[in-house]
Amino acid sequence: MKRPETFISVNEAKIKLSKVLSERITLEEELVKIVDSPGRVSSRLVKAPFNRPRVNLSAVDGYAVRSLDTIGSSTFTPVELVIKGVLKPGGDPDEVCVEPGFAIRVHTGAPIPCGANAVVMDEDVKVQGDTILVFKPVAPGANIILKGEDISENSVLVEPGTLIRPAHVTALASIGVNALHVYRKIRTSIIAIGDELVEPGHPLSKGKEYNSSAYIIYTQLVRDGIFQVDYTGIVPDDTEAILDAIKREVSKGSDLIITVGGTGVSETDKIPELLEEYSSPIFRGVRMRPGRMTSASVVLGRPVLSLSGFPVAAWAGYELILRPAIAAWLNISGFERPVVYAYLARRLPNISGYTSIVRVSLAVKNGKYYAEPYMLRGSGVISSLLRTHGYIVVPEDTEGFEEGEEVPVYIYT
Amino acid sequence: MKRPETFISVNEAKIKLSKVLSERITLEEELVKIVDSPGRVSSRLVKAPFNRPRVNLSAVDGYAVRSLDTIGSSTFTPVELVIKGVLKPGGDPDEVCVEPGFAIRVHTGAPIPCGANAVVMDEDVKVQGDTILVFKPVAPGANIILKGEDISENSVLVEPGTLIRPAHVTALASIGVNALHVYRKIRTSIIAIGDELVEPGHPLSKGKEYNSSAYIIYTQLVRDGIFQVDYTGIVPDDTEAILDAIKREVSKGSDLIITVGGTGVSETDKIPELLEEYSSPIFRGVRMRPGRMTSASVVLGRPVLSLSGFPVAAWAGYELILRPAIAAWLNISGFERPVVYAYLARRLPNISGYTSIVRVSLAVKNGKYYAEPYMLRGSGVISSLLRTHGYIVVPEDTEGFEEGEEVPVYIYT
After folding, report:
1. How far is A26 from A332, CA to CA, in rounded Å?
2. pLDDT (tens digit per residue) in B255-304
3. From the CA atom positions of chain B, what is the Rg in Å?
4. Cis peptide bond upstream of A53, omega within 30
5. I need a surface site. Which of A57, B46, B132, B376 has the fewest CB within 10 A?
6. By the 8 A CB rule, do B154 and B143 touch?
7. DSSP string covering B141-168, please?
8. Hey, which residues 379-398 in chain A have their CB within 8 Å of chain B?
9. Is the CB of residue B113 less than 8 Å from the CB of residue B96?
């Protein structure tokens, strides 16, 4: 490990990267149709321009009445009211009013006609030709959905920075909004680095290895919805070649460049050399395991994040640094992974001074989660991600967690 | 409520619908690029054709040695070995062998050269020109990642029915697979029904209401990844018009048609009439709240699911019936919503004989979740979905849940 004293904490890395992202990337707004907005981040405040429902509605199938007219009614002394008309959903509540001694038939969702202040349910009346018999009094407001009960005028439906879910879309549709201002996607280029790498689908010659780390980054970014991701292929362990690839992506208009691989301290790993010579570093090395060689820098004015070539270490760098940095930069709410609390099936010692990301499998017993850490060493162990359900973060300033301790587990989504 | 005695349980509805889906829809396979496979469901078993790593690799930067040569070494009596060459990741392990008294420099990830059975870390040697001094013995296998340690030959990476995540993509890439057989998406048409409905973005005349329920279904289906969703617009409350719309979607090749609205018992709601006259019912009415008018039938040979026109009830019908029915039909693993266990902040009584879906907001206190049920009545209350984090299912055969009881909460994703 070269110069570990220069390594910074995961939190410092997140803050530094977030700052550079906000300084170097101008993320304009764009207007998207609401149906295309889930997974995007709103850039503006959206308030309800009117109440929902806009007028009082019937919550049931029944008869709109004046509450006063039903006073004194009972099974033995029903009140008789004359049916004056019918109002369906979408009907005009001012067309016919309910006058004393009258009732208007209403369907569920129909507006409450003028003059009425309560609805008697079908179950509580008997229809006799043009009249109904009401057998018990109804209080004012009975079976009425009040205007604004769901969404009141001027209430906030979407804050800037909200990660849009289907529920937001429905709320927006209900107040007539069919398009939403969101941040445009972050144009992100992924470059795989390594002499030994061969793309899947091609024959593998001796000593070579299939490129896999760039694929977990690519697919996770696509899945997280806010990136427009371009995977640009494999570049050899050659400083000029790497620099050329970065230059090409910058000229194509990338906001952010992610390199995967080449971060080690071997003579073949060119990222450290590149950082020294051609870029201004943001940070170089992070006190995290796996992924301690994760670095970030500015090359040609663009932020470049250099992730490890080992799949789990690359994933950890995204999960613990880039993703939180972006959430902080755009102040995104709702971007956190789901968390469950689980009892640790065994002790998780920490390496003092390092933040560890530990994959765990979860089991449920009597409505409690138990987390079994996946102990197989090696940041290249892909199967650890397949066989687990989420991860625990052991902070750098703790001794670790004890067996039986209840700890938060972040769930893969 | 018309003929509630014919209502079936949520579980029966799921089973019946699942059976019809499997009988009526032929879901062919398609081959997709692995980068496009997350969120899709695999249709085949995928086994690893070879070990990963394929050969033993060095886990560290150091020197590949014969363990035997290091026996007896100590700080005071180091063993001197001659450096015979260097092996980088991607190098040929059979080019030069480690003979007694020799060592080969290896980088992290480099294959272990023939003859060697251990690696001494850089930290534990001193380089003197062409030789190294080893200060402590290394056991056979030390600092070596064994071939097959991550993924062993013939081990199963993907089962049929697996919902693909980024980790699967990485695993597939690592064994050279660049395309995966998945079920093609389920071609699904959504039809909104209602005289009172106006599409968002258009002016709203008196008594009309913006169409919102179809949008939560559309976006949730798109988000769930396995549907190819076509929203076809609003159809009036007219049996012929609804039937024509269904016919049109059938002729366009839809696998599944979802109607939203028109399921009530008012004279204006045409779905019950349609079910009686033109279709063979799968079920008509479900013992669930909200969403008790949820129905399903076969029209022109195609399954038609009729969801309520109220947004929350429509969502509940998808969440509790269609989604689980599809998971059962395709035997999907990994399709469940994330679950947390939370203490109920207040009693949740059940209406005997009905399954209730109750939205809750979650708060964390001392590493425990507390769930606050959202009590505002009304299946049309969209804000209930905005202000909550997930839902509790109160099964029909219980009295409900007590205050303080720990219950599973399904998290919105």
Report:
1. 16
2. 999 999 988 766 677 888 888 888 899 999 999 999 999 999 999 999 99
3. 31
4. yes
5. B376
6. no
7. TTTEEPTTSSB-TT-EEE-TTBBP-HHH
8. 380-383, 385-386
9. yes
CB-based burial, B311-337: b 16+ in 10 Å, e otherwise: bbbbbbbbbbbbbbbbbbbbebeebee
Chain B contact present for A262, CB below 8 A? no
CB-based contact, B267 to chain A, within 8 Å: yes
pLDDT level of residue B353 (50, 70, 90 thresholds): confident
Residue among B323, B317, B351, B349 at smallest CA distance from B336: B323
Q: What is the mean pLDDT of residues B197-216?
A: 92
Find tokens 């066989």 and name the residue. Answer: A387
Two structure tokens written together for A257: 């460049």
Look-up of token digits 């009584």: B349
pLDDT at residue A62 is higher than 90: yes
Domains annotated on chain B, with CATH: 4-27+185-330 (3.40.980.10), 32-50+160-182 (no CATH), 57-145 (2.170.190.11), 339-411 (2.40.340.10)
- Asked if residues B21 and B256 have their Cβ atoms less than 8 Å apart, the reply is yes
Task: Extract the tokens encoding B363.
Answer: 């708060």
Length of chain B as a residue count: 413
Residue position matching structure tokens 């993509």: B169
Distance from the first to the final alpha carbon of chain A: 33
Q: How many whole angstroms separate alpha carbon B290 and alpha carbon B308?
A: 9
Rounded to an integer, what distance in angstroms lies between the CA atom of residue B163 and that of residue B224? 10
d(CA A183, CA B367): 34
Sequence-separated (6 or more) residues with CB below 8 Å from residue A400 = A347, A348, A349, A350, A394
| B200 at interface of A, judged by CB pairs closer than 8 A | yes
Closest by CA to B219, choosing from B314, B340, B357, is B314
In which band, very low, low, confident or very high, does the pLDDT at A208 lie, cut at 50, 70 and 90? Answer: confident
From A52, A211, A220, residue closest to B173, measured CB to CB: A211
DSSP letter at A22 equals: H
Q: Are A138 and A118 a contacting pair, CB within 8 Å?
A: yes
Asked if B366 is an interface residue toward chain A (Cβ–Cβ < 8 A), one would say: no
Rounded to whole angstroms, what are the CA distances from A170 to B4, B221, B382?
A: 29, 13, 7
Q: Which of A39, A93, A266 sits opposite B107 (nearest CB)?
A: A266
pLDDT digits (tens, 9 = 90+) for B151-195: 999 999 999 999 999 999 999 999 999 999 999 999 999 999 998
Residue carrying the six token digits 């269609």: B322
- Asked whether the beta carbons of residue B89 and residue A268 sit closer than 8 angstroms, the reply is yes
SS3 breakdown of chain B: % helix, strand, coil, rounded to 5? 25, 35, 45
- Chain A residue with minimal CA distance to B204? A176
A116: left (phi over 0), alpha (psi -120 to 50) or beta: beta
| Residue whose structure tokens are 């207040």 | B346
Cα B272–Cα B274–Cα B275 angle in degrees, nearest 5: 65
Q: Does the N-terminal peptide bond of residue B203 adopt cis geometry, omega within 30 degrees of 0?
A: no
CA angle (B385 as vertex; B382, B387 as ends), nearest 5: 110
CA atoms within 13 A on the CB side of A11: 8
Question: Beta A390-394 vs A406-411: how paired, if at all?
Answer: antiparallel
Whole-model pTM: value is 0.91
| Interface with chain B: mutation pick from A95, A175, A204, A386, highest number of B CBs within 10 Å | A386
A365 touches chain B (CB under 8 A): no
Tokens 């069919």 correspond to what residue? A178
The H or E element containing residue B214 is helix B213-223
